Each structure stands twice: as C-alpha cells, then as structure tokens.
Amino acid sequence: MTTVEQRAPVALAPVGEVGRPGWGHRPGSVKMARRIRSLKDHLVAYGLLSPAIVVFAIFFYLPAIYLVYISFFHWGVLSSATQFVGLQNFRRLFAQPLFWHSLATSGYYTLVMIPATVLLALGIALVLREAVTARRGGVWRAAVFLPHVTPVVATSIIWIWIFNPQFGLANFVLTSLHLPALGWLDTTAWALPAVMIDSLWHSLGLYVVIFLAGLANVPRDLVEVARLDGARRRRIFWRIIWPLLSPTTFFVVILATVNSWQAFSQIYTMTGGPHGGAGGPAFSTTTDSLLVYQTAFSFDHFSLASAMALVLFVIILVLTLLQKWISNKVVFYR
Questions:
Q1: Domain boundary assignment for the chain
Q2: What distance in Å separates the CA atoms of residue 223 and residue 286, rounded to the nearest whole number?
C-alpha cells in the first residue's frame, strides 16, 4: 500500500485562477466548442424554419418570379409558343382606359377604407377597453372578431340580400326613417359604397383586436397621474394614448392599405361574379385586382394580366415605402 507521502504531489491552482477560461482548458478548444454549439443552434433553427421556407418558395416566390418573366413575353396556357415582346404588354396596358379607371377606383376605395377603418376600429377598441367589464369583455371581443373569421363569400351573399332593392333590410331601415330607398348594387353611385360597407364590416374585427393589443401596452400609471392632475379624457387621449398608439396605428394603416388595394372576393361575389358582370354596373366597382382576374381568366390574356399584377405590386410597394417614410417623422416608439 502506498502512503500519503509516496503519492505524487498535486498542483493546486492559485486562488482566483480556477474561474479563468484558460485554466484547465485550451483557448482553442473553448472557441471550437462555442462554434460547434452555435452551428448546432443554427441547424436546429433552419431545420424548424425549412417547412415554412419551402412552402413560401413553392407557392409564393417561384410564382412571383415566373409572373415577372411572362410579363415580358406573349404567353398562353394552351399555347406552347412563347415570344419575347419586351415592354409591349406594358404599352398596351397603359393605353387602355379601363386600366386607368380601375386604378382610380382602387385608389378611391383605399382612400375611403383607411380612415374609416382606423376611426371605427379605434373607437370600438376604446369602448371595449373602458366600458366592458373584465368578466364579459372576452364575449364582446369574440363577437367583434367573429365576422373576420367567417368566409368572405358567405358573408357577401348575406349582404347581397341586405342590399336587395325590393325586400332588403337596408331599404327597410331607410323607409322606416322616412328616407328614400336606394338601388345599392344596381346603381353606379351606390354599388361601390355597398361593397365598402361589407368590406368594413368583415375586416373591422381584426383591426379592433390589434388596437386592443396596443391599448394594453399603454401604461395605466400615466393615465392615472394625468387624471389626478385634472386632465380630461380628451386631453389624455391626444397627449398620452394617441402618441403611444402611433406604432399600432401605423401597422393598421399598412394592413388596411394592402388589403384595400387587393380587395377582390367581396367585389367579385357582390357584383355578380359567378353569373357574369363582375365589376358592374358600368365598371363602377372594377378595381385593379378584379381586372387582373378578368384579364387572365375571362379574356385569356395572361401576359397582360401579369404586367398588370406587376404594376399593382409596384404601387403597393411605393405606398408602403411612402408610409414608412412618413412614419419615421410621426410615429413615436418609446
């Protein structure tokens, strides 16, 4: 047996040296372990994201790239011959009065929908936040959000019956108030406003929920201090709540802009899409998105429709960048 005196002496680390990275490990091995760990984290992250990336690549990015490609060609579904025409599709597009009319209709539709969406959604969100008790608040929020999760086509059919000029609910309310009945979807003056009412009713719940999330981030301490100082509700809203809601408002404006320029389903359904005549009467509800669909699938001009869709993409991109530039000056990030 070996005694204590016969054992090899053990080198002890000085006090304060044990915790240093270089003690007991080589600096190169520590860096290598960190790199391997970082590589594993990246592999796991990209592995989890790969299904979504593949889906986006197949159903979004590749079709978008191919759309740009065929916009410079004379291309057809049933024709195997493909001829490069350059900018001829865009020249034909800009020479059509109906295209400019559809852009004007889309612009008018968007300019009306954005302020109406922001004002109504914010007002309903403030009411739900202040006037509804916590026990019943969830029920009212679900009721407001319910129209957004219902199919657009189904709700549009219901609104067709509401706007029926003979026995619709809208004219019944107007005549009950001793107001003249309207033609709604049968007249050029009221067809687009009728579609706007349907679109606003269907999408409002989403924006209300977004504003409620923004209001939840407003510190209640600031509001209580302002009330103790004697500030009224209007002053509290404009001086405290509204500046803190500017990022949420900017997000809602971006969503409303994109959704308004791309509005299609409700217009197609309410103006007689399955039975022909979508966009009527007299092209009063023909937006750019609807014209893209009709050009491609009703008139079989896929190259011209691709050029039109590319122009629509550029318009939405420019509007988004413009709103982003404006937001840098007016949006308050705390």
A1: 27-70, 95-330
A2: 46
Burial of 306 from C-beta contacts in 10 A (0-12 / 13-18 / 19+): buried
**What interhelical angle do 302-330 and 62-70 show, nearest 10?**
120
Instruction: Report which of residues 28 and 38 the model is more confident about.
Output: 38
Strands of the chain, DSSP E: 73-74, 83-84
Handedness of CA 72, 78, 80, 83 (dihedral sign): negative
The answer to whether residues 320 and 138 touch, using CB atoms and an 8 Å cutoff, is no
Find out whether 165 and 186 touch, Cβ atoms under 8 Å.
yes
CA angle, 133 then 139 then 142, to 5°:
130
Residue range 95-330, CATH number: 1.10.3720.10
Tell which wins on pLDDT, 83 or 170: 170
C-alpha–C-alpha distance, residues 328 and 322, integer Å: 10
15 pLDDT more than 60: no
Residue 131 has pLDDT above 90, yes or no: no
The amino acid occupying position 40 is: K
- Distance between CA atoms of 99 and 104, rounded to whole angstroms? 9
Q: Is 241 helix (H, G, I), strand (E, B) or coil?
A: helix
Q: Which single residue is written with the structure tokens 């657009």?
A: 152
At residue 201, does pLDDT exceed 90? Answer: yes
